[in-house]
Specification:
single chain, mainly alpha, transmembrane helix, membrane, transmembrane
């Protein structure tokens, strides 16, 4: 028996997509590859580099606090994606699964998650500033805008989680 969409929740599927994006593209190996093999002056190179935004690492050259903040941003991105997918009403109010509202709710959840993850992680930096927090939130929202459609597609067709 095929599992199909009967067992797929929109928040769960979107969160798994966000987790895969963070684990694969936020890894030090992908980021090093993107920096060495892409041109930031082309749209494709810019986008491939943007995919590595929620960077996580275990680099011993950085201070422990900066490593934890970088990892915190990646963790918060995944956790907040789930929270916003659960809270946004698009997938809850859609009459039929797989509608445009589910796609947009998933995309919006990732935009919000990116902005809030960056904002909150910036508060734990060594010398946090309000301007730094605003700039980080803007970059997180930009990341969510250009990459969040993947989470929106993943959340399509899922049910809300409580029937």
């Amino acid at each position: 028996m095929a599992l199909g969409n009967r067992y797929k929740t929109a928040p769960g599927a979107g969160t798994i997509a966000a987790l895969i994006l963070v684990l694969v593209f936020g890894s030090p190996w992908y980021r090093d590859w993107a920096l060495d093999n892409t041109n930031p002056d082309t749209a494709g190179g810019w986008w491939l580099r943007l995919l590595g935004w929620p960077a996580w690492s275990f680099d011993t050259d950085d201070s422990l606090r900066d490593v934890i903040v970088g990892d915190l941003k990646a963790i918060l991105l995944v956790v907040l994606t789930f929270v916003f997918l659960y809270l946004l009403p698009g997938s809850q109010l859609a009459r039929a699964r797989g509608t445009v509202s589910q796609f947009l709710a998933g995309w919006a959840a990732f935009i919000f998650a990116g902005a809030f993850a960056a904002l909150l992680a910036t508060l734990f930096l060594t010398n946090p500033s309000l301007l730094g927090a605003f700039n980080a939130a803007g970059s997180g929202a930009g990341y969510g805008f250009f990459v969040g459609w993947i989470v929106g597609l993943a959340s399509l067709g899922g049910w809300r989680g409580t029937r």
